[in-house]
Amino acid sequence: MFKKTVAAISAALLIGTAGLPAASAEERTLLDESIYNTLVDRFFNGTTKNDQGADPTDTDGFNGGDFAGLQEKLEYIQDMGFTAVSIGPIFETASYDGHAVLAYGKIEDRFGTDKELKDMISAYHDADMKVYADFPLGGVSPDHEWTTGHEGWAIPSEDGETINWDLGNEDVQDALIDAAITFTEETEIDGVRLTSFGDADPAFLDRVINAVKEASPSVTVFADAPTEADFDLAYDPAVMEILRSAFVEMDPDSSGMDEIGLTDPPSMMFFDDLNTTRFTSEMVNRNMFPPTRWNVATTALFTLPGVPVMTYGSEIAVTGTEAPGTHPLHNFKTDEELKDHIADVNGLRNQSETLRTGDFELLHNENGLIVYERSSDEETWVIVLNNTSETQRIDLTAEQIGEGKRLRALIDNNLVSQADSGEYRIVLDREAADLFIVEEDTGLNIPYIIAAILVYATFIGFIYMVWRKGKQRAKDEKAKA
Predict the structure, then answer these.
(1) Lowest-confidence range among 22-36, 131-145, 216-230?
(2) Has residue 465 got a pLDDT over 50?
(3) What pLDDT, in 10s, does the model give residues 431-455?
(4) How far apart are CA 135 and CA 138, in angstroms?
(5) Each residue of 287-300: pLDDT tens digit?
(6) Could you tell me which residues are beta bridge partners of residue 434?
(7) In which band, very low, low, confident or very high, does the pLDDT at 9 lie, cut at 50, 70 and 90?
(8) Does domain 24-357 have CATH number 3.20.20.80?
(9) What are the extents of the domains in the chain?
(10) pLDDT above 70 covers what percent of the chain?
């Protein structure tokens, strides 16, 4: 019990809380962000006044989620360490996911009023968090207001249920750009994700990006599909496939991790998104235990180079192969252990600039045993992921770590000193992950000593309080007698 208490206090001293980086939202760069990706309708119903017959059991219809719900559950998202929330399309829409846009100039009243939207965004800003929303450039409703009086603007889509815009038409381009500018200016949103643009000319997408940024210089513009356009974040589905392959099961072929590295612009790091099969479903199909899988996977997600993006419900292991099954109403029946692990690792990322922006070097990668380094002039981290079915030992060389160092584990609170032969030998249980901070080996475990002092001080304080209460009780009884 004593050892566990010391370990817990040491972890608290080292990791702190899942708080945000020291810099304010205005000062943060994209590499400082971590994004929680959700849909307004499928998150939380904060008020029934705008439900309009919403049915939380109807997978195809509106479930009742709204801006008020996002505001009410702000702390839930922030407690996991996320610095930004992406809420999907919020225009007037014929579909719960917001993509069947009816008008770019109106906000969907099932989601709330313009004031409720601004109140929600203000609440997130007060919490030093950012809010991103989608702007669909196609796949909109056939009843969109632009289909009247604009002959030749619309092109029927393959599904027959939506329409696309002729993105080669300059009038269409100008109208979309004006709508995007108005949307970002009026909502004061922090980021816009352009979606459903098909094989649009990158030159047009660059026009949208430049126009939006000229009107709102601090706005982040990104996409949900690969393109050569100059977006602020790189979307690469190959990254998702590499991560899924490396962490979906034990003893995987993790060779794809050799391709992971720092990119410019930064890459979005994700295991699934709102358009894909849920990562948990892939685990279940392989008879894996999702909480354990996610425990290792999220350690990687928040320590690899790039901007981590986690789809809502991953913390409760939501499954599903396609929409709307992949978009359930969030029930908040959270696996607290997994949620706490996300908070710890994401919180550590928030506190360490090195884990967000530092250099990256892959030190070892073989069949699920993955070791990499994040380093800067200020500090060096070694992350060890044992995604195998057996306890593993990895020997890191003095050339990799340096002479006279020690590695202090953040999760298991172990210390690894340099062996007489020069190596640093790390042993990790199967399906486990840990982060090690590299420090000078002074022979003293200062955090452990501090933690021990705190434990003893707390214990002495407790004994003193018991003594005082006992003394007061005896005094009271004597007075009554």
Answers:
(1) 22-36
(2) yes
(3) 999 999 999 988 655 555 566 676 6
(4) 9
(5) 999 999 999 999 99
(6) 384
(7) very low
(8) yes
(9) 24-357, 360-440, 455-481
(10) 89
Q: Would you state the structure tokens that stand for residue 350, as one six-digit string? A: 């928030």
Q: Is the pLDDT confidence value at 168 over 60? A: yes
**Average confidence score pLDDT of the chain:** 92
Residue 413 CA to residue 50 CA, distance in Å, equals 50
Residue 347 token pair: 């919180």
| Domain at 360-440: CATH code | 2.60.40.1180
Return d(Cα 155, Cα 16) in angstroms, integer: 53
**Residue corresponding to tokens 């690894």:** 416
* Integer Cα distance of 312 and 332 in angstroms: 10
- Evaluate whether 449 touches 419 at the Cβ level (below 8 Å): no
8-state DSSP, 140: B
Residue 312, CA distances (Å) to 5, 61, 220, 246, 427 in order: 32, 19, 21, 21, 33
- Got the DSSP string for 30-47? GGG--EEE--GGGT----
Burial of 199 (0-12, 13-18, 19+ CB in 10 A): exposed
Chain centroid offset of residue 310 CA = 4
CB 405 within 8 A of CB 439: yes
Altogether, the residues listed in the chain come to a count of 481
My answer on whether omega of the bond before 265 falls inside 30° of 0, hence cis, is yes
Instruction: Write out the H or E segment, with its range, that includes residue 97.
Output: none
DSSP string, 263-328: -SSPBEE-S--TTS--HHHHHHHTT--HHHHHHHHHHHHTTSSSEEEEETTGGGT---SSTTTTSP
The pTM for the full model equals: 0.89
Q: CB-based burial of residue 232 (10 Å sphere; 0-12 exposed, 13-18 middle, 19+ buried)?
A: middle
Give 383's strand partners. 372, 435
Write out 222-258 in H/E/C secondary structure.
Answer: EECCCCCCCCCCECCHHHHHHHHHHHCCCCCCCHHHH
Q: Give every CB contact of residue 451 below 8 A, 6+ residues apart in sequence.
A: 6, 7, 9, 10, 13
DSSP assignment of 421-456 equals: TS-EEEEE-TTEEEEEEEEE--S--HHHHHHHHHHH
Cα separation, 292 vs 301, whole angstroms: 14
